């Protein structure tokens, strides 16, 4: 799991480019509320996805698990650093795409995220960093433990906020009224 200085600089550069792109798209550096919180608990608020941690942070850790597994399977000859660069590129790309008007409106139309207006730059950068944490964990932990942690995170978040990575993907790709009604507590 060693990385060269060039690989570390490449990862940092990708994150910086994503941050600049998001800022250029009009997303605030920090929450419009004017302060930074370590953790924001309330999903149904204008501060969701604006601070360092939120209920969607576990999804990004799971992204890291999934990217590590996928790249380990399809690109086993690449070094750890090369695979991490690819994972960061995909995650950073998703953070930019996720914060376009098209995807934001899709979330608002098909999910319980009616007040979602996109992430702050700080939150998006944090999301990328948590994906990196997940990637490193997946490289170090036994497969069974990585899977157990992923399932536990999904179940915990699902119970706490009636959402998570799996439901988020389902509702973005193939919205189901039954899931939306459950998420709304009906």
Architecture overview:
This protein has 186 residues and is mostly helical. The chain has one domain (5-183). It contains eight helices and no strands. Helix 1 (5-24) packs parallel to helix 3, helix 2 (57-74) packs antiparallel against helix 6 (143-161) and helix 3 (80-98) packs antiparallel against helix 5.
Fold blueprint:
Elements: H1 5-24, H2 57-74, H3 80-98, H4 101-110, H5 121-140, H6 143-161, H7 165-173, H8 177-183
Strand and helix order: HHHHHHHH
Tell me roughly what share of residues is in helical segments.
55-70%
Main β-sheet description? none
Find the count of extended strands (DSSP E, 2+ residues): 0
Number of domains: 1
Strand content: under 5%
On the 0 to 100 scale, the average pLDDT is 91
Structural class: mainly alpha
SS element count, helices: 8
Straight-line N-to-C gap: 47 Å
Low-confidence blocks of residues? none
Gyration radius from CA atoms, angstroms: 17 Å
Name the overall outline. Answer: globular
Can I get a quick summary?
With 186 residues, the chain is mainly α. The protein is built from eight helices and no strands. Helix 1 (5-24) packs antiparallel against helix 5 (121-140).
Which short descriptors sum up this protein?
about 190 residues; about 0% strand; mainly alpha; globular
